[in-house]
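PROTOCOL LOG
Step 1. Enter all chains and additional molecules of the complex.
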Amino acid sequence: MATHGKRTKIEDIRRIELIAAAHRVFLEHGLHGMTSARICREAGMSPGILAYYFKGKDEVLFGMVRYNNRLLMEDVIARLKAARTGWERLEAIVEGNFPASAFTQPIANAWLSVCAEAGVNPQYARLQRLFYRRLRSNLASVFEEMAAESRLREAGFIIAALIDGLWLRKAAADDLGRDEAIALVFGGIRSLMTNGEEQRLRHPEG
Amino acid sequence: MATHGKRTKIEDIRRIELIAAAHRVFLEHGLHGMTSARICREAGMSPGILAYYFKGKDEVLFGMVRYNNRLLMEDVIARLKAARTGWERLEAIVEGNFPASAFTQPIANAWLSVCAEAGVNPQYARLQRLFYRRLRSNLASVFEEMAAESRLREAGFIIAALIDGLWLRKAAADDLGRDEAIALVFGGIRSLMTNGEEQRLRHPEG
DNA sequence: CAGAATCTTGTATGAGCGTACAAAAATCTT
DNA sequence: AAGATTTTTGTACGCTCATACAAGATTCTG
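Step 2. Run joint prediction.
Step 3. Record the structure below.
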């Protein structure tokens, strides 16, 4: 306290508190249920406070997405740094796509609500890109690094879609857990990587 | 006109017209953009007409989903009847999951908006189940029929998730066409079905 | 055609939302 | 402590939406 370096300003504190509250509300009620009033109540503040610290609700929204991405990425970045083999990198990224305590139905739904709104509101489309590329682009890069054949780039495409599909299923049916989801992804990876070009399914036309 | 058998009542006509209009609005504007006023305008009627023929907006919504499922199923059912081999059945179902002129970004988004709302509103959850199982259950049955090994049931799970993931990607990035999507699914099917149990990816732990 | 039944319109009402803002409370400055 | 500044509150306005409803238009019936 002897230092007279800049103390953390109240403005920053409040902004972070509000964004964290917005994040909690978002995960519980989805994008549509994330109202200004609810955010303020969740943060234990008065309804009007939001307009004082933010230009509008959109600013809170974008801040919330950045906050969310930071939370998601922290774990993965640490594991990626420690990873030595390509396989370890792949493991880190795949498991990072299913965060330990975040693969739940409400969160899957919240995530989907952003995707859904992106089609109508172009501003949400930017937001969507941030969400969509959380860890996906890393996945693609590792995949290409592990095997640069053009055929395996298709495989990366398939695995990315598989991961999304499992989240979608989590949101819709909620009939699988985190470990099962990860096992399915690695099952898909195994099949795709051990398969040669020449193999074909028996097929009437062939 | 000589017959005095029941003529199609106006009530039925209007209900169908309104549901069809609701369907068009839904595909263009998503669930959230499907307002009563827009539905009536799309149907060329007065704003208040909806309350006369339906108990509420929910009734229109459910009718719209049934209408949608009927449209989707008609083509598939016809192809399934004509199919002789298991492969043909599989083709019919997979391609039925990507209807010729319906694999578009707006439609993908509209579909997602139902999934997203299902997590918050329990009434939409029922709706979601109808949507989700459109063709999925058929897929599973054909998969199990073609090869009843328990390992391939997992494969059916993966393929179903893959299909959903491709729709999600369509909504989010819109960077693939119908043919590419179908090709990717069959690529996944090929890999999964030609792979034996014993094969494993080289892995430090193994 | 007259009267009844049905269908359609346009508008009104109330709820929920984002946002603006005046006033109150708290904090800082001298 | 007194005034200035920052922070917080509570409320009010304008907007969009679902729904209800009175009044008008149309069709049916005798």
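Step 4. Note key features.
Residues 35-37, 48, 50-51, 56-57 of chain B lie near DNA strand D (CB under 10 Å from a C1').
The domain at 11-193 of chain B is CATH 1.10.357.10 (Tetracycline Repressor; domain 2).
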